[in-house]
Amino acid sequence: MSLIPVTILTGFLGSGKTTLLKRVLTEAHGQKIAVIENEFGEENIDNDILVSDQQEQIIQMSNGCICCTIREDLRATLADLAAKKRKGELDFERVVIETTGVADPGPVAQTFFMDDEIAEAYLLDAVVTLVDAKHAPEQLNDRVEAQRQVGFADQIFISKADLVDAEALHALQHRLKHMNPRAPQRVVHFGEVPIKDVFDLRGFNLSAKLDIDPDFLKEEDEHDHDHGHDHHDHDHEHHGEHCGHPSHQHDHAHGHHHHHDDDVKSFVFRSDRALDPAKLEDFLGAIVNIYGPRMLRYKGVLWMQGTERKVIFQGVHQLMGSDLGPAWAEGEPRVSKMVFIGIDLPKDILVQGLQQCLV
């Protein structure tokens, strides 16, 4: 039986998760989806659609979807659903797990890699994070969980953008991009996201592509290689005081005020020299050991000495996996590119360590 794809839906209270889930559970989209709800959410779907016997954990919707609440732990709920599917008692093609507004999606994601029984039935597809444009700036300032949800995301949907002006939206997008340059951002209305944009995003598969927002790379380049400030003028016109780009604080004494230096940050390491496989393995192993709990997501597409193929690695917290990708194409520039997203990760230690792994 093929693996059941799973989407983790996260985001702070009021960001529109419930609206999105209601659509999944009631709209005629032709897919059979099981939604697992964390029961202790402050705004439960139950109140609205699920007027039914409270003893029943699994409720069948009119459009073929299933909704179930977690009474025990997530693992038990998933195992139970998979068993019922095998026996033909339940019919569903995929699972959406809604985490509560204050949850860190990390442990939920790890369940799919650490637990053999779960890994044999399910495939984690992506973490989708909903961000409420109006309240996000404050939530990101006050709650590290909100930052983690952004750092973990494979896709970010920004809701309630109609309630803020263009400048505030731009500043928020800029801020989110620096926390997580690998997740595409999309502005959505009232959680009305086409189902196809939520599913099969393949955020966790070891693909040979490392999508990092191109603007983010451009800025990184300017910081690394350009000590004149000309390129930044356009930047400052847009973001003015709200630039919120932590590295400007150190790199340029522009007298700008920065309101947020987020705990969750990302950085990219790139090199056009080959990496020594043994050294890199030792170094990454050590880093994951020490900083694992603070490392949310990381991924790299690497040029390794001794192989004609790209090497791809990625991880969540302490769990790291790697694989051989396709061969380097004729004439394709061989570069290694890695992105690390985490909580107060020591960029200098990581960069220095990685440089020492170069051949």
TrEMBL record:
Q: Which InterPro entries match?
A: CobW-likC_sf, CobW-like_C, CobW/HypB/UreG_nucleotide-bd, P-loop_NTPase, Zinc-reg_GTPase_activator
Please give the catalytic activity noted in the UniProt record. Answer: GTP + H2O = GDP + phosphate + H(+)
Q: Name one GO cellular component term.
A: cytoplasm
**Which segments show compositional bias classed as Basic and acidic residues?**
224-252
For this protein, the record's CDD domains field holds:
CobW-like (cd03112)
Q: Which SMART domains match?
A: CobW_C (SM00833)
Q: Listed GO molecular functions? A: hydrolase activity; nucleotide binding
Q: Which Gene3D superfamilies match?
A: CobW-like, C-terminal domain, P-loop containing nucleotide triphosphate hydrolases
Q: Where is this region: Disordered?
A: 219-260
Extract the Pfam families matched here: cobW, CobW_C
Q: Which UniProt keywords apply?
A: Chaperone, Hydrolase, Nucleotide-binding
Q: Where is the CobW C-terminal domain?
A: 264-358
Summarizing the function annotation, the protein's role is: Zinc chaperone that directly transfers zinc cofactor to target proteins, thereby activating them. Zinc is transferred from the CXCC motif in the GTPase domain to the zinc binding site in target proteins in a process requiring GTP hydrolysis.
Which protein family is it in? Belongs to the SIMIBI class G3E GTPase family. ZNG1 subfamily.
- PANTHER family registered for this protein in UniProt: COBW DOMAIN-CONTAINING PROTEIN, COBW-RELATED
The entry's protein name is Cobalamin biosynthesis protein CobW
Which source organism?
A: Ottowia oryzae
